[in-house]
Design a protein that fits this description.
This protein has helices spanning about 95-105, 125-135, and strands spanning about 5-10, 20-30, 30-35, 40-45, 60, 65-75, 85, 90-95, 115-125, 135-140. By secondary structure, it is mainly beta.
């Protein structure tokens, strides 16, 4: 597996926090994996968070059960957002968040350019591979990220 892999939960995860989820794996290395749930919109928008109340109403997504106190983002605009880390398939993880917010607010960045998440999914080394082997996750061959 590599960054950029998409996973879909199987019926083995029904009744759990991962029921019917699609996850984008943004980091994959010897230490473990990090990913984001792509199909769980958060009921509030960016401008409904106190820190961003004067900005645009931009959608948020529940990225996973880990660290829901922080925002993370995936994007396709390394030409506009500096310091992102390649996360597979011409998708980048993070980068200069102040620049990103400014570009959202001035209308340069749109929903098809990035997704902002509260929290993420994380697995220690070998955990995700074990979950795939037991049939909890199906690897998707091709999927649309944004």
């Amino acid at each position: 597996m590599s960054p950029g892999t998409m996973l879909h939960s199987t019926e083995l995860l029904d009744g759990s926090v991962f029921e019917k989820t699609v996850i984008y794996i943004a980091e994959y290395n010897e230490k473990g994996s990090m990913g984001f749930v792509m199909n769980q919109p958060f009921p509030r928008r960016l401008n409904e968070l106190e820190e961003f109340k004067h900005g645009k109403a931009f959608p948020l997504h529940l990225g996973g059960p880990v660290d829901r106190e922080h925002l993370y983002f995936l994007h396709r605009r390394p030409d506009l957002i500096p310091d992102g880390v390649e996360a597979g398939g011409n998708v980048f993880l993070g980068g200069d968040f102040k620049t990103t917010i400014r570009l959202i607010n001035n209308g340069t960045l749109m929903e098809h350019d990035l997704k902002i998440f509260l929290g993420y999914c994380g697995w220690d080394s070998g955990e995700l591979e074990a979950e795939i082997a037991e049939g909890s996750w199906q690897i998707l061959e091709a999927a649309t990220l944004f």
